[in-house]
Amino acid sequence: MNAPPLPYSALVVDDSPHSRILLMRLLQRNGISKVDSAVNGAEGLEHYKFSKPDLVFLDAVMPEMDGLSTLREIRKIDPNSIVIITTSLSEKEKVLQFKEAGANYYLLKPFEEEKFVETLGKVVAILAQRPRKE
Amino acid sequence: MDCFNCHTANDEGRKFCKECGAALGSFCQRCKNVGDIDDKFCGVCGNILALNAQERLFSPPEDPGAPKQYSPEEMNDLLSLRKIARAEEAASARVTQSDIDSIFS
Predict the structure, then answer these.
(1) How far is A5 from chain B (nearest CA, A)?
(2) Which residues in A86-122 are b (16+ Cβ under 10 Å) and which e?
(3) Which of the four CATH numbers 3.40.50.2300, 3.40.190.170, 3.20.20.330, 3.90.1150.10 does domain A9-129 have?
(4) Is residue A133 predicted with pLDDT exceeding 70?
(5) Residues B33-62: pLDDT tens digits?
(6) Contact A102, A78 (CB under 8 A)
(7) What is the ipTM of this complex?
(8) Size of interface A-B (CB pairs under 8 A)
(9) Which residues contact B96 (CB under 8 A, 6 or more apart)?
(10) Quick one: closest CA in B to A103, which residue?
(11) Can you give the pTM of this predicted structure?
């Protein structure tokens, strides 16, 4: 059963079709139906500039432009956007790099749906405190 | 025992030839002990002895067992390398989702 619709939009940036589909389904199942996707950081950045989504799910390892570079570019555009890193990279150094670059959350793949829902709940709580976009 | 070098007869128990001073057994370059002629390792310090009988009696040119002496600069370099290695080890340490949640909390 799907959750009640939420007035937020999301962007999923991941080079793996399986991951993109999974994240889009999870978002839609949890009330976020306005979901865009991109296959790498460069494309993701273009989509971000165009649609300014409320939250971004960003893979770390991608061709052309990786997650860290994409995150840094997004932060230049909007320091307050919510970016959730979704990756299987578990080296502490990498995690700290993303933290330092301004990532809001970091989900280690493969993650349980429960963990996804918990993280999304925190994101939605933050977004609910912000004034709605025009 | 006859000396390997000058063939002078020496009494049993002597370690060096009374005529030419050559070792009458396996001479250890590290601790200067003279062991049996067939010893492969020094019976006192464990140093590996020359495999060739001639070399055992007439010492090899360099002491292979001598510890290397480092200058203060070299010691600093070695300590720096150790620090870098430790930092790299820490950096490559893997974390769990729970650890990550703590980092991002």
Answers:
(1) 27
(2) bbebbebebbebbbebebbbbbbbebeeeebeebbee
(3) 3.40.50.2300
(4) no
(5) 788 877 778 888 887 776 555 555 555 445
(6) no
(7) 0.87
(8) 36
(9) A90, A108
(10) B104
(11) 0.63
